[in-house]
Amino acid sequence: MLLGAFNAHPYYVRMSNMNKVLLIFLCISLFAYYLKLDKSPQLEPVHIKMQKDDNQNTNTNKPSVRFHDVAGLDEVKEELAEIIDFIKAPHKYHKMGAKIPKGILFYGPPGTGKTLLAQALAGETDSSFFPTSGSEFVEKYVGVGAKRVRSLFEKAKKGAPSVIFIDEIDAIGAKRTTESNNEKDQTLNQLLIEMDGFHSEQTIIVVGATNRLDLLDEALLRPGRFDRHMFIGNPDLHAREEILHVHTKNKPIDENVNIKELAKRTHGMSGAHLSNIANEAAILAVRNNKKSIGITEFSEAIEKVIAGLQRKNAVILDKEKQKVSYHEAGHALMGKILNTDLISRVSIIPRGEALGYVMYCPEEDRYLKTTAELKNKIKVLLGGRCAEQLIFKEISTGASDDLKKANAIAYQMVCDYGMSNLHNRVFEPSLVKNCYPMIDKEIENIIDECYEDALQHLTNNLDLLSTVAHKLYEKETLSGEEFQMLVQSNYSTIT
Ligand SMILES: Nc1ncnc2c1ncn2[C@@H]1O[C@H](COP(=O)(O)OP(=O)(O)OP(=O)(O)O)[C@@H](O)[C@H]1O
Ligand SMILES: [Zn+2]
Questions:
Q1: Considering its fold, how many domains does the chain have in total?
Q2: What are the pLDDT digits (tens) for 58-95?
Q3: Same structural domain for residues 134 and 73?
Q4: Ligand 1 atom 4, closest CA
Q5: How far apart are CA 407 and CA 397, in angstroms?
Q6: Which atom of ligand 1 has the smallest separation from the CA of 232?
Q7: Longest dimension (CA), the chain
Q8: Among 39, 227, 395, 442, which one is most buried in terms of CB atoms within 10 A?
Q9: What ipTM does the predicted assembly reach?
Q10: 328 tagged catalytic
Protein backbone atom coordinates (compact mmCIF):
# COMPACT_ATOMS: atom_id res chain seq x y z
CA MET A 1 0.00 0.00 0.00
CA LEU A 2 2.83 2.29 0.87
CA LEU A 3 4.52 1.62 -2.50
CA GLY A 4 1.24 2.17 -4.32
CA ALA A 5 1.00 5.61 -2.76
CA PHE A 6 4.55 6.30 -3.89
CA ASN A 7 3.67 5.57 -7.47
CA ALA A 8 0.48 7.59 -7.49
CA HIS A 9 2.00 10.85 -6.29
CA PRO A 10 3.97 12.83 -8.85
CA TYR A 11 6.27 14.32 -6.18
CA TYR A 12 7.46 10.91 -5.09
CA VAL A 13 7.88 9.77 -8.68
CA ARG A 14 10.43 12.48 -9.20
CA MET A 15 12.46 11.53 -6.13
CA SER A 16 15.99 10.22 -6.57
CA ASN A 17 16.84 6.71 -5.39
CA MET A 18 18.96 8.20 -2.60
CA ASN A 19 16.00 10.19 -1.33
CA LYS A 20 13.82 7.09 -1.45
CA VAL A 21 16.26 5.22 0.76
CA LEU A 22 16.33 8.18 3.16
CA LEU A 23 12.54 8.34 3.27
CA ILE A 24 12.17 4.61 3.96
CA PHE A 25 14.76 4.91 6.74
CA LEU A 26 12.80 7.84 8.18
CA CYS A 27 9.55 5.82 8.11
CA ILE A 28 11.18 2.87 9.84
CA SER A 29 12.62 5.18 12.54
CA LEU A 30 9.20 6.80 13.10
CA PHE A 31 7.55 3.37 13.36
CA ALA A 32 10.16 2.19 15.84
CA TYR A 33 9.67 5.40 17.89
CA TYR A 34 5.91 4.75 17.91
CA LEU A 35 6.50 1.23 19.23
CA LYS A 36 8.76 2.63 21.94
CA LEU A 37 6.04 5.03 23.05
CA ASP A 38 3.54 2.25 23.23
CA LYS A 39 5.74 0.06 25.35
CA SER A 40 8.22 1.98 27.38
CA PRO A 41 11.50 0.11 27.77
CA GLN A 42 10.76 -0.19 31.49
CA LEU A 43 7.69 -2.24 30.83
CA GLU A 44 9.31 -4.57 28.34
CA PRO A 45 9.92 -7.34 30.90
CA VAL A 46 6.24 -7.23 31.80
CA HIS A 47 5.33 -8.56 28.42
CA ILE A 48 7.74 -11.41 28.72
CA LYS A 49 6.69 -12.22 32.29
CA MET A 50 3.00 -12.14 31.54
CA GLN A 51 3.47 -14.61 28.75
CA LYS A 52 5.34 -16.84 31.14
CA ASP A 53 2.52 -16.46 33.64
CA ASP A 54 -0.07 -17.37 31.05
CA ASN A 55 1.77 -20.55 30.33
CA GLN A 56 2.20 -21.28 34.00
CA ASN A 57 -1.46 -21.17 34.75
CA THR A 58 -2.93 -22.91 31.75
CA ASN A 59 -2.53 -26.27 33.41
CA THR A 60 -5.14 -25.38 36.01
CA ASN A 61 -5.76 -28.51 37.97
CA LYS A 62 -8.64 -29.93 39.86
CA PRO A 63 -6.91 -31.43 42.88
CA SER A 64 -7.65 -34.95 43.95
CA VAL A 65 -6.98 -34.09 47.61
CA ARG A 66 -10.00 -34.59 49.88
CA PHE A 67 -10.76 -33.75 53.49
CA HIS A 68 -9.89 -37.27 54.58
CA ASP A 69 -6.32 -36.58 53.42
CA VAL A 70 -6.16 -33.75 55.95
CA ALA A 71 -5.84 -35.29 59.39
CA GLY A 72 -7.07 -33.52 62.52
CA LEU A 73 -8.25 -29.90 62.19
CA ASP A 74 -11.83 -31.08 62.73
CA GLU A 75 -13.14 -27.67 63.78
CA VAL A 76 -11.70 -26.01 60.70
CA LYS A 77 -13.16 -28.72 58.47
CA GLU A 78 -16.54 -28.19 60.11
CA GLU A 79 -16.35 -24.48 59.37
CA LEU A 80 -15.35 -25.20 55.80
CA ALA A 81 -18.28 -27.59 55.34
CA GLU A 82 -20.57 -24.57 55.13
CA ILE A 83 -18.40 -22.98 52.43
CA ILE A 84 -18.43 -26.27 50.52
CA ASP A 85 -22.20 -26.22 50.54
CA PHE A 86 -22.12 -22.64 49.24
CA ILE A 87 -19.92 -23.70 46.33
CA LYS A 88 -21.84 -26.87 45.54
CA ALA A 89 -25.33 -25.41 45.72
CA PRO A 90 -25.03 -21.67 45.25
CA HIS A 91 -28.61 -21.31 43.98
CA LYS A 92 -29.98 -22.35 47.35
CA TYR A 93 -28.28 -19.33 48.88
CA HIS A 94 -28.95 -16.91 46.02
CA LYS A 95 -32.66 -17.64 46.32
CA MET A 96 -32.53 -16.46 49.91
CA GLY A 97 -30.51 -13.42 48.91
CA ALA A 98 -27.52 -14.69 50.88
CA LYS A 99 -24.05 -13.77 49.69
CA ILE A 100 -21.40 -16.43 49.30
CA PRO A 101 -18.27 -15.64 51.29
CA LYS A 102 -15.45 -14.48 49.05
CA GLY A 103 -12.34 -14.74 51.13
CA ILE A 104 -11.02 -17.06 53.82
CA LEU A 105 -7.83 -16.52 55.71
CA PHE A 106 -5.84 -19.41 57.16
CA TYR A 107 -3.28 -18.28 59.69
CA GLY A 108 -0.87 -20.13 61.92
CA PRO A 109 2.62 -21.62 62.07
CA PRO A 110 4.31 -23.11 59.00
CA GLY A 111 3.73 -26.67 57.84
CA THR A 112 0.38 -27.12 59.53
CA GLY A 113 -1.66 -27.95 56.43
CA LYS A 114 -2.92 -24.59 55.16
CA THR A 115 -2.06 -25.36 51.55
CA LEU A 116 -3.36 -28.90 51.91
CA LEU A 117 -6.70 -27.63 53.25
CA ALA A 118 -7.10 -25.17 50.38
CA GLN A 119 -6.41 -28.00 47.95
CA ALA A 120 -8.96 -30.19 49.73
CA LEU A 121 -11.53 -27.37 49.54
CA ALA A 122 -11.07 -27.32 45.76
CA GLY A 123 -11.01 -31.13 45.62
CA GLU A 124 -14.21 -31.56 47.60
CA THR A 125 -16.08 -29.07 45.41
CA ASP A 126 -14.58 -30.10 42.08
CA SER A 127 -13.31 -26.55 41.66
CA SER A 128 -10.36 -25.36 39.60
CA PHE A 129 -7.41 -24.63 41.84
CA PHE A 130 -5.15 -21.63 41.28
CA PRO A 131 -2.24 -21.76 43.70
CA THR A 132 0.01 -18.74 43.91
CA SER A 133 2.15 -16.98 46.45
CA GLY A 134 2.11 -13.32 47.52
CA SER A 135 5.79 -13.05 46.74
CA GLU A 136 5.13 -13.90 43.08
CA PHE A 137 3.31 -10.58 42.72
CA VAL A 138 6.04 -8.47 44.19
CA GLU A 139 7.99 -6.87 41.38
CA LYS A 140 10.20 -3.89 40.81
CA TYR A 141 8.09 -2.46 38.03
CA VAL A 142 4.97 -0.53 38.87
CA GLY A 143 1.83 -2.14 37.53
CA VAL A 144 3.19 -5.64 37.02
CA GLY A 145 1.77 -7.13 40.21
CA ALA A 146 -1.64 -5.55 39.56
CA LYS A 147 -1.66 -6.93 36.03
CA ARG A 148 -0.89 -10.40 37.32
CA VAL A 149 -3.70 -10.19 39.86
CA ARG A 150 -6.10 -9.16 37.09
CA SER A 151 -5.01 -12.01 34.86
CA LEU A 152 -5.30 -14.51 37.73
CA PHE A 153 -8.89 -13.51 38.44
CA GLU A 154 -9.77 -13.59 34.74
CA LYS A 155 -8.62 -17.19 34.58
CA ALA A 156 -10.43 -18.07 37.78
CA LYS A 157 -13.65 -16.61 36.39
CA LYS A 158 -13.27 -18.67 33.23
CA GLY A 159 -12.64 -21.84 35.23
CA ALA A 160 -15.32 -21.18 37.89
CA PRO A 161 -16.10 -22.63 40.34
CA SER A 162 -12.57 -21.81 41.41
CA VAL A 163 -10.44 -21.67 44.51
CA ILE A 164 -7.61 -19.15 44.35
CA PHE A 165 -4.94 -19.84 46.95
CA ILE A 166 -2.55 -17.02 47.85
CA ASP A 167 0.17 -18.30 50.16
CA GLU A 168 2.24 -15.71 52.10
CA ILE A 169 -0.46 -13.14 51.48
CA ASP A 170 1.40 -10.76 53.80
CA ALA A 171 3.91 -10.19 50.98
CA ILE A 172 1.26 -8.05 49.23
CA GLY A 173 -1.27 -7.52 52.00
CA ALA A 174 0.91 -6.12 54.79
CA LYS A 175 -0.26 -2.94 56.50
CA ARG A 176 0.30 0.09 54.31
CA THR A 177 2.68 2.62 55.79
CA THR A 178 3.31 6.28 55.10
CA GLU A 179 6.44 5.37 53.16
CA SER A 180 4.29 3.78 50.56
CA ASN A 181 5.60 1.32 48.08
CA ASN A 182 3.79 2.19 44.90
CA GLU A 183 4.04 -1.22 43.30
CA LYS A 184 2.90 -3.11 46.40
CA ASP A 185 0.02 -0.70 47.03
CA GLN A 186 -1.18 -1.03 43.45
CA THR A 187 -1.06 -4.82 43.68
CA LEU A 188 -3.02 -4.85 46.94
CA ASN A 189 -5.54 -2.35 45.53
CA GLN A 190 -6.03 -4.54 42.48
CA LEU A 191 -6.66 -7.55 44.70
CA LEU A 192 -9.27 -5.57 46.65
CA ILE A 193 -10.88 -4.35 43.43
CA GLU A 194 -11.08 -7.90 42.09
CA MET A 195 -12.57 -9.21 45.31
CA ASP A 196 -15.15 -6.42 45.41
CA GLY A 197 -15.78 -6.86 41.71
CA PHE A 198 -16.84 -10.43 41.21
CA HIS A 199 -20.45 -11.21 41.83
CA SER A 200 -21.41 -13.88 44.25
CA GLU A 201 -22.93 -15.77 41.30
CA GLN A 202 -19.40 -16.31 40.03
CA THR A 203 -18.30 -18.88 42.53
CA ILE A 204 -14.73 -17.95 43.29
CA ILE A 205 -13.31 -18.42 46.76
CA VAL A 206 -10.03 -16.74 47.56
CA VAL A 207 -8.05 -18.44 50.29
CA GLY A 208 -5.16 -16.47 51.76
CA ALA A 209 -2.56 -17.98 54.06
CA THR A 210 -0.16 -16.28 56.43
CA ASN A 211 1.94 -17.02 59.47
CA ARG A 212 1.25 -13.51 60.77
CA LEU A 213 -2.35 -12.29 60.85
CA ASP A 214 -1.27 -9.17 62.76
CA LEU A 215 0.75 -7.92 59.78
CA LEU A 216 -2.20 -7.67 57.42
CA ASP A 217 -3.82 -4.44 56.28
CA GLU A 218 -7.23 -3.74 57.80
CA ALA A 219 -8.71 -3.19 54.33
CA LEU A 220 -8.02 -6.80 53.47
CA LEU A 221 -9.89 -8.10 56.51
CA ARG A 222 -13.08 -6.08 56.01
CA PRO A 223 -16.46 -7.78 55.48
CA GLY A 224 -16.84 -9.00 51.93
CA ARG A 225 -13.12 -9.61 51.62
CA PHE A 226 -11.08 -11.93 53.86
CA ASP A 227 -13.67 -11.87 56.59
CA ARG A 228 -13.39 -15.49 57.73
CA HIS A 229 -10.29 -16.18 59.74
CA MET A 230 -9.35 -19.71 60.72
CA PHE A 231 -6.43 -20.56 62.95
CA ILE A 232 -4.50 -23.60 61.77
CA GLY A 233 -2.31 -24.64 64.68
CA ASN A 234 0.17 -27.41 65.37
CA PRO A 235 -1.51 -30.78 65.93
CA ASP A 236 -2.20 -32.20 69.39
CA LEU A 237 -1.54 -35.82 70.35
CA HIS A 238 -4.66 -37.23 68.70
CA ALA A 239 -4.16 -35.21 65.52
CA ARG A 240 -0.51 -36.24 65.34
CA GLU A 241 -1.58 -39.86 65.50
CA GLU A 242 -4.02 -39.29 62.65
CA ILE A 243 -1.44 -37.44 60.55
CA LEU A 244 1.05 -40.27 61.06
CA HIS A 245 -1.63 -42.73 59.96
CA VAL A 246 -2.25 -40.71 56.77
CA HIS A 247 1.45 -40.64 55.94
CA THR A 248 2.14 -44.30 56.68
CA LYS A 249 -1.02 -45.59 54.99
CA ASN A 250 0.71 -46.72 51.83
CA LYS A 251 3.97 -47.79 53.43
CA PRO A 252 4.90 -51.27 54.67
CA ILE A 253 5.24 -50.91 58.43
CA ASP A 254 6.50 -53.49 60.95
CA GLU A 255 3.79 -54.91 63.17
CA ASN A 256 5.53 -53.78 66.34
CA VAL A 257 5.47 -50.10 65.31
CA ASN A 258 3.01 -48.32 67.58
CA ILE A 259 1.79 -45.13 65.91
CA LYS A 260 0.30 -43.84 69.17
CA GLU A 261 3.73 -44.09 70.80
CA LEU A 262 5.30 -42.22 67.87
CA ALA A 263 2.67 -39.51 68.28
CA LYS A 264 3.63 -39.15 71.95
CA ARG A 265 7.26 -38.69 71.04
CA THR A 266 6.58 -35.90 68.53
CA HIS A 267 5.05 -33.24 70.78
CA GLY A 268 5.29 -29.74 69.28
CA MET A 269 5.85 -30.92 65.71
CA SER A 270 3.84 -29.81 62.70
CA GLY A 271 2.14 -31.95 60.06
CA ALA A 272 5.01 -31.19 57.71
CA HIS A 273 7.50 -32.56 60.28
CA LEU A 274 5.44 -35.74 60.69
CA SER A 275 5.15 -36.29 56.96
CA ASN A 276 8.89 -35.75 56.79
CA ILE A 277 9.49 -38.34 59.54
CA ALA A 278 7.41 -40.95 57.69
CA ASN A 279 9.35 -40.29 54.52
CA GLU A 280 12.78 -40.29 56.22
CA ALA A 281 11.94 -43.59 57.93
CA ALA A 282 11.02 -45.13 54.56
CA ILE A 283 14.31 -43.95 53.03
CA LEU A 284 16.26 -45.39 55.98
CA ALA A 285 14.49 -48.74 55.57
CA VAL A 286 15.59 -48.87 51.93
CA ARG A 287 19.12 -47.96 52.97
CA ASN A 288 19.07 -50.70 55.61
CA ASN A 289 17.86 -53.25 53.05
CA LYS A 290 14.69 -53.93 55.02
CA LYS A 291 11.39 -55.18 53.63
CA SER A 292 9.36 -52.95 55.91
CA ILE A 293 9.87 -49.87 58.08
CA GLY A 294 10.71 -50.70 61.70
CA ILE A 295 10.83 -48.80 64.95
CA THR A 296 14.60 -48.25 64.52
CA GLU A 297 14.01 -46.27 61.34
CA PHE A 298 11.21 -44.24 62.89
CA SER A 299 13.31 -43.50 65.97
CA GLU A 300 16.22 -42.37 63.84
CA ALA A 301 13.96 -40.17 61.71
CA ILE A 302 12.42 -38.58 64.84
CA GLU A 303 15.88 -37.93 66.30
CA LYS A 304 16.89 -36.22 63.09
CA VAL A 305 13.88 -33.88 63.09
CA ILE A 306 14.28 -33.17 66.83
CA ALA A 307 17.93 -32.31 66.29
CA GLY A 308 16.87 -29.82 63.64
CA LEU A 309 14.27 -28.34 65.94
CA GLN A 310 16.71 -28.15 68.84
CA ARG A 311 18.96 -26.05 66.69
CA LYS A 312 16.04 -23.68 66.27
CA ASN A 313 15.22 -23.89 70.00
CA ALA A 314 11.74 -25.01 69.12
CA VAL A 315 11.62 -28.36 70.82
CA ILE A 316 9.85 -28.73 74.14
CA LEU A 317 11.55 -30.94 76.67
CA ASP A 318 9.50 -33.34 78.76
CA LYS A 319 10.17 -31.40 81.98
CA GLU A 320 8.88 -28.27 80.29
CA LYS A 321 5.82 -30.13 79.10
CA GLN A 322 5.05 -31.07 82.72
CA LYS A 323 5.50 -27.48 83.86
CA VAL A 324 3.29 -26.12 81.09
CA SER A 325 0.62 -28.72 82.00
CA TYR A 326 0.54 -27.51 85.61
CA HIS A 327 0.70 -23.87 84.55
CA GLU A 328 -2.31 -24.13 82.23
CA ALA A 329 -4.19 -26.33 84.69
CA GLY A 330 -3.60 -23.59 87.27
CA HIS A 331 -5.22 -20.96 85.05
CA ALA A 332 -8.14 -23.19 84.13
CA LEU A 333 -8.83 -24.31 87.69
CA MET A 334 -8.73 -20.76 89.04
CA GLY A 335 -11.24 -19.82 86.35
CA LYS A 336 -13.48 -22.64 87.46
CA ILE A 337 -13.14 -21.98 91.19
CA LEU A 338 -13.86 -18.27 90.84
CA ASN A 339 -16.55 -18.90 88.26
CA THR A 340 -15.19 -16.38 85.77
CA ASP A 341 -15.62 -16.84 82.00
CA LEU A 342 -16.56 -20.28 80.70
CA ILE A 343 -13.57 -22.25 79.45
CA SER A 344 -13.78 -23.60 75.89
CA ARG A 345 -10.36 -25.23 75.60
CA VAL A 346 -7.20 -25.84 77.60
CA SER A 347 -4.09 -26.79 75.68
CA ILE A 348 -0.36 -27.26 76.01
CA ILE A 349 0.19 -27.03 72.24
CA PRO A 350 2.41 -24.00 71.64
CA ARG A 351 0.63 -21.14 69.95
CA GLY A 352 2.57 -18.06 68.88
CA GLU A 353 4.92 -17.16 71.71
CA ALA A 354 2.91 -19.07 74.31
CA LEU A 355 3.75 -22.66 75.25
CA GLY A 356 0.12 -23.34 76.13
CA TYR A 357 -3.17 -21.52 76.44
CA VAL A 358 -6.63 -21.47 77.96
CA MET A 359 -9.40 -20.29 75.68
CA TYR A 360 -12.60 -18.81 77.03
CA CYS A 361 -16.05 -18.67 75.49
CA PRO A 362 -16.72 -15.24 74.06
CA GLU A 363 -17.93 -12.96 76.83
CA GLU A 364 -21.23 -11.20 76.49
CA ASP A 365 -20.68 -7.51 75.90
CA ARG A 366 -20.34 -5.99 79.32
CA TYR A 367 -19.11 -2.54 79.99
CA LEU A 368 -19.14 -2.45 83.77
CA LYS A 369 -16.95 -4.58 86.00
CA THR A 370 -16.80 -4.64 89.76
CA THR A 371 -13.67 -4.59 91.92
CA ALA A 372 -14.16 -8.26 92.77
CA GLU A 373 -14.50 -9.23 89.11
CA LEU A 374 -11.31 -7.43 88.16
CA LYS A 375 -9.45 -9.04 91.04
CA ASN A 376 -10.75 -12.44 89.95
CA LYS A 377 -9.35 -11.80 86.49
CA ILE A 378 -5.96 -11.09 88.05
CA LYS A 379 -6.19 -14.27 90.14
CA VAL A 380 -6.91 -16.38 87.05
CA LEU A 381 -3.94 -14.78 85.30
CA LEU A 382 -1.70 -15.52 88.30
CA GLY A 383 -3.03 -19.09 88.59
CA GLY A 384 -0.37 -20.37 86.17
CA ARG A 385 2.60 -19.09 88.17
CA CYS A 386 0.99 -20.14 91.49
CA ALA A 387 0.64 -23.72 90.22
CA GLU A 388 4.31 -23.78 89.16
CA GLN A 389 5.45 -22.49 92.54
CA LEU A 390 3.24 -24.91 94.41
CA ILE A 391 4.36 -28.03 92.56
CA PHE A 392 7.93 -27.34 91.46
CA LYS A 393 8.89 -24.96 94.31
CA GLU A 394 10.33 -22.58 91.75
CA ILE A 395 9.01 -20.15 89.21
CA SER A 396 9.78 -19.91 85.47
CA THR A 397 9.74 -17.30 82.72
CA GLY A 398 6.51 -18.84 81.39
CA ALA A 399 4.30 -16.37 83.26
CA SER A 400 5.75 -13.22 81.71
CA ASP A 401 2.72 -12.42 79.58
CA ASP A 402 0.29 -13.23 82.41
CA LEU A 403 2.16 -10.86 84.71
CA LYS A 404 2.04 -8.08 82.16
CA LYS A 405 -1.72 -8.47 81.82
CA ALA A 406 -2.31 -8.76 85.58
CA ASN A 407 -0.21 -5.65 86.26
CA ALA A 408 -2.03 -3.74 83.53
CA ILE A 409 -5.38 -4.49 85.18
CA ALA A 410 -4.04 -3.50 88.62
CA TYR A 411 -2.64 -0.28 87.15
CA GLN A 412 -6.02 0.59 85.66
CA MET A 413 -7.74 -0.19 88.95
CA VAL A 414 -5.46 2.29 90.73
CA CYS A 415 -5.06 5.01 88.11
CA ASP A 416 -8.30 4.92 86.12
CA TYR A 417 -11.03 3.37 88.23
CA GLY A 418 -10.31 4.61 91.76
CA MET A 419 -10.38 1.05 93.08
CA SER A 420 -7.50 1.15 95.57
CA ASN A 421 -6.67 2.55 99.00
CA LEU A 422 -6.18 5.87 97.25
CA HIS A 423 -9.95 5.85 96.97
CA ASN A 424 -11.71 7.79 94.28
CA ARG A 425 -8.62 9.46 92.91
CA VAL A 426 -7.62 8.96 89.30
CA PHE A 427 -4.21 9.71 87.85
CA GLU A 428 -3.69 11.34 84.49
CA PRO A 429 -0.61 10.00 82.67
CA SER A 430 1.18 13.30 83.37
CA LEU A 431 0.57 12.88 87.12
CA VAL A 432 1.63 9.25 87.28
CA LYS A 433 5.32 10.15 87.26
CA ASN A 434 5.07 12.39 90.33
CA CYS A 435 2.96 9.95 92.33
CA TYR A 436 4.68 6.82 91.12
CA PRO A 437 5.86 5.38 94.51
CA MET A 438 2.33 5.71 95.88
CA ILE A 439 0.72 4.13 92.81
CA ASP A 440 3.31 1.39 92.70
CA LYS A 441 2.60 0.48 96.32
CA GLU A 442 -1.10 0.13 95.55
CA ILE A 443 -0.43 -2.06 92.49
CA GLU A 444 1.82 -4.21 94.65
CA ASN A 445 -0.93 -4.57 97.27
CA ILE A 446 -3.48 -5.71 94.70
CA ILE A 447 -1.14 -8.16 92.99
CA ASP A 448 0.12 -9.61 96.31
CA GLU A 449 -3.38 -10.03 97.68
CA CYS A 450 -4.54 -11.78 94.50
CA TYR A 451 -1.46 -14.00 94.40
CA GLU A 452 -1.91 -15.13 98.01
CA ASP A 453 -5.56 -15.82 97.37
CA ALA A 454 -4.87 -17.83 94.19
CA LEU A 455 -2.14 -19.80 95.97
CA GLN A 456 -4.55 -20.62 98.80
CA HIS A 457 -7.27 -21.79 96.40
CA LEU A 458 -4.88 -24.04 94.50
CA THR A 459 -3.39 -25.41 97.75
CA ASN A 460 -6.90 -26.33 98.86
CA ASN A 461 -7.49 -28.12 95.54
CA LEU A 462 -4.09 -29.66 95.02
CA ASP A 463 -5.42 -33.09 94.03
CA LEU A 464 -7.73 -31.61 91.44
CA LEU A 465 -4.87 -29.49 90.09
CA SER A 466 -2.78 -32.62 89.65
CA THR A 467 -5.65 -34.52 88.03
CA VAL A 468 -6.19 -31.76 85.46
CA ALA A 469 -2.46 -31.33 84.84
CA HIS A 470 -1.93 -35.07 84.31
CA LYS A 471 -4.84 -35.31 81.92
CA LEU A 472 -3.52 -32.30 80.03
CA TYR A 473 -0.04 -33.80 79.88
CA GLU A 474 -1.50 -37.02 78.53
CA LYS A 475 -4.00 -35.59 76.02
CA GLU A 476 -2.36 -32.18 75.37
CA THR A 477 -5.73 -30.55 74.65
CA LEU A 478 -8.93 -30.67 76.68
CA SER A 479 -12.16 -29.35 75.25
CA GLY A 480 -14.34 -27.19 77.49
CA GLU A 481 -16.62 -30.16 78.04
CA GLU A 482 -13.81 -32.57 78.92
CA PHE A 483 -12.45 -30.06 81.40
CA GLN A 484 -15.88 -29.55 82.99
CA MET A 485 -16.42 -33.32 83.24
CA LEU A 486 -13.06 -33.82 84.85
CA VAL A 487 -13.75 -31.12 87.42
CA GLN A 488 -17.32 -32.30 87.90
CA SER A 489 -16.24 -35.81 88.83
CA ASN A 490 -14.06 -34.27 91.55
CA TYR A 491 -16.40 -31.39 92.24
CA SER A 492 -17.28 -32.37 95.76
CA THR A 493 -13.71 -31.61 96.73
CA ILE A 494 -13.55 -28.13 95.18
CA THR A 495 -13.16 -25.34 97.71
N1 LIG B 1 -3.25 -31.96 58.93
C2 LIG B 1 -2.44 -32.61 58.09
N3 LIG B 1 -2.77 -33.82 57.61
C4 LIG B 1 -1.97 -34.49 56.77
N5 LIG B 1 -0.80 -34.01 56.31
C6 LIG B 1 -0.41 -32.80 56.75
C7 LIG B 1 -1.20 -32.03 57.64
N8 LIG B 1 -0.57 -30.88 57.89
C9 LIG B 1 0.56 -30.89 57.17
N10 LIG B 1 0.68 -32.05 56.49
C11 LIG B 1 1.81 -32.45 55.62
O12 LIG B 1 2.74 -31.39 55.58
C13 LIG B 1 2.91 -30.89 54.25
C14 LIG B 1 3.03 -29.41 54.28
O15 LIG B 1 1.79 -28.84 54.64
P16 LIG B 1 1.25 -27.50 53.99
O17 LIG B 1 2.11 -27.10 52.83
O18 LIG B 1 -0.19 -27.63 53.75
O19 LIG B 1 1.54 -26.52 55.19
P20 LIG B 1 1.30 -24.94 55.24
O21 LIG B 1 0.57 -24.69 56.50
O22 LIG B 1 0.70 -24.47 53.97
O23 LIG B 1 2.78 -24.45 55.41
P24 LIG B 1 3.44 -23.02 55.06
O25 LIG B 1 2.87 -22.03 56.04
O26 LIG B 1 4.88 -23.30 55.31
O27 LIG B 1 3.09 -22.73 53.63
C28 LIG B 1 1.68 -31.38 53.49
O29 LIG B 1 1.96 -31.57 52.15
C30 LIG B 1 1.37 -32.68 54.19
O31 LIG B 1 2.17 -33.70 53.68
ZN1 LIG C 1 -0.02 -18.43 81.70
A1: 4
A2: 445 888 899 999 999 998 999 999 889 988 888 888 88
A3: yes
A4: 70
A5: 16
A6: 21
A7: 117
A8: 442
A9: 0.95
A10: yes
